[in-house]
Design brief:
By secondary structure, the protein is mainly alpha-helical. It contains 21 helices and no strands.
């Protein structure tokens, strides 16, 4: 077909589709909206998606959810994904499953990921496998992760490696992590490095951590810093921690506090510990307790130890038990000592 005739036919199709949409045809409304969105006219596209979705078009409901997600209107997007999912739209099920997972509703997320997969959305395998890995259900996760990993999903490769590691299949786990790293998933560098550390292969671990850190992976920077710190390369370790701390990592902030205290700078140490605690580091609270105890501020020290202990920090429990025993509160001291020992047995 000559180019001029093709353009003329396209304009006719657009005109007829618009007239059908204006006449109330919800399928035509969705097509008009899709064309507008493809041309970058998002506001008008949204208006047509809304009309089609309100008219019961489930494709429009999902597309409206995607558009709203893109502009940050997550709450309303979730409502439309839910409507689409209830109407049987597979990608709406996937969108709603992701929303459920973000809100910590694991059972609902699992249900809708499975429904999406059964409705033909193969990309639901990876998120479902990840959800199960996060829940510690490694044997349930393995098959889903493998399906997605074999299809090239790098995140699923990482998750599959974790599931295999938990099953004791360390060699295959490492192979999948290497594949994930080659596919650009830097989290795999940390997993490879940690596995090498557990096997006593420190040089190999350093190589993996450096690769992840060079790529900008924050945990890899912290892990590299810890490795360097332990062998006495304090200056480079501090540089790694600073890079990670600037990215908001609380473990790096805590470790910067440890370095400061080892230099005798308790003021800088306290500043880093407080910042780490503000970012969620429980060990930083215990360290703040040690600083307070060192200056004989025992009430403040006990406060920090108790806060850390109640959050599950074993060192916080042990330090609190020691302080309680010193002032004669033997029953409570024994309680925290037992909890610390019990937590240690389960780690």
């Amino acid at each position: 077909m000559p180019g001029r005739l093709r353009k003329w036919n396209t304009r006719v199709d657009d005109y007829l589709r618009r007239k059908a949409a204006e006449g109330g045809n919800v399928v035509a409304m969705t097509r008009v909206a899709a064309d507008l969105r493809q041309r970058g006219e998002s506001a008008e596209a949204e208006a047509w998606y809304r009309r089609a979705a309100a008219g019961g078009d489930r494709i429009a409901m999902t597309a409206l959810g995607h558009l709203l997600t893109e502009r940050g209107a997550d709450g309303e997007a979730e409502r439309w994904y839910h409507e689409a999912a209830l109407a049987g739209e597979p990608h709406g099920m996937l969108g709603y499953a992701r929303a459920c997972e973000r809100h910590g509703h694991g059972d609902n997320a699992e249900h809708w990921y499975l429904a999406a997969y059964q409705a033909g959305v193969s990309e639901a395998c990876g998120p479902l496998g990840h959800l199960l890995v996060e829940a510690g259900r490694y044997s349930d996760a393995e098959g889903w992760c493998r399906h997605a990993a074999e299809a090239g999903d790098a995140t699923a490769m990482v998750d599959l490696g974790i599931a295999l590691r938990e099953a004791g299949v360390h060699g295959e786990a490492a192979r999948w992590w290497r594949a994930a790293l080659e596919a650009g998933e830097l989290a795999a560098a940390c997993l490879l490095g940690r596995q090498a550390e557990r096997l006593g292969r420190t040089e190999e671990a350093e190589t993996w951590f450096r690769r992840g850190a060079k790529g900008g992976h924050v945990e890899a920077k912290v892990r590299l810093g810890l490795l360097l710190h332990r062998r006495g390369d304090v200056e480079e370790a501090e540089s790694c921690y600073l890079d990670a701390a600037e990215a908001g990592d609380p473990a790096a902030m805590t470790n910067l506090g440890v370095l400061a205290r080892s230099r005798g700078d308790d003021g800088e140490a306290a500043a880093w510990y407080r910042k780490a605690a503000e970012h969620g580091s429980v060990p930083a609270l215990t360290n703040l307790g040690h600083l307070a105890e060192a200056r004989d501020d025992l009430a403040r020290a006990e406060h920090y130890f108790r806060t850390a202990a109640e959050t599950g920090d074993v060192q916080g429990m042990l330090s609190l038990a020691r302080m309680l025993r010193a002032r004669g509160a033997m029953n409570e001291a024994d309680h925290w000592q037992f909890r610390a020992e019990d937590s240690g047995d389960r780690t």
